[in-house]
Design brief:
Helices cover 38% and strands 23% of the residues. The chain has nine helices and 13 strands. The protein has a five-stranded mixed sheet, sandwiched between helices. A four-stranded mixed sheet has the order 8-12-7-11. Strands 1-2 form a two-stranded antiparallel ribbon.
Amino acid sequence: MSHESSSPPLTLADLGPETDLALLAPQLAQFAAVARLEHVTQAAQLLGMPQPTLSRSVARLEAELGVELLARQGRTVRLTRAGRLLLGSVERALAELERGAEAARAEADPAVGRVAFGFLHTMGSDAVPALLRGFRVEHPQVRFQLVQDHVTAMLERLRDGELDLCLVSPLPVAAELTARPLDEQRLHLAVPADHRLAGRRRIRLAEVAEDPFVAVGEGYGLRVITDGFCAEAGFSPRIAFEGEEAETLRGLVAAGLGVALLPPALVPRPGVVELEVTSPRTRRAIGLAWVTGRPLAPPAVVFRDFVLSRRGRLLDHD
């Protein structure tokens, strides 16, 4: 075989970021096949390509590397010292690629694949565990990467492809995202046990317009919703403390540091009284979001369909 090349020979040091590795990779795989069998014709049959084409491919690889990889004896070949060195690296690279391909196939397997699922902090203690438990009855081997974050960060990670699905509130309104409502959750006003309104069952939100509030930080969906309900009641809340977790906020309320709009507590918190708000109607919509037009892997599709089937039953209502 002749060593033909239309470009100057490359040395191994030249094979850096500027080299077209997309063209080199097939040649390396073809070289490995010839080296394993030590026979060009048999390797061509194994690869399903014409023998002359395979011979030219290996010759181009030698020309590009600037070394002779094979010593030819008719249709049989043997590796040169340089060829043995390269084959070792190529074999390791091909094995790693095979492992990667297997991992990719497993990731997309609807029975054992992985779902990257983001959800609100306030849903991590009850609703999401119950959802996952129900799903795994029929799909026990599907794996999950679970992410809790505020809604703005989760939606960015969704757009960037880090997450497949997000359980969010409020529901995003954006062309690049699809959101489906699942349920509504009542928000109560949590007040300290010694608060002036603690003996009431129901209040209007305007009655605490002058009280300090404790709330989650900017960017959290619950903060957006709290600010919106307060505006609807005719005031802007005076935020005294910010936190990240609903239970932390309840602790601040119990300490007498403010009031808060929060989802119902799973277990009553000592020192905290939860009041129903009659005006405005303090409920938040919770839904599932994904990127519009981006294909989901089979396990994510199966999980999405399961979650959507829980519409109206996602939450326990008080």
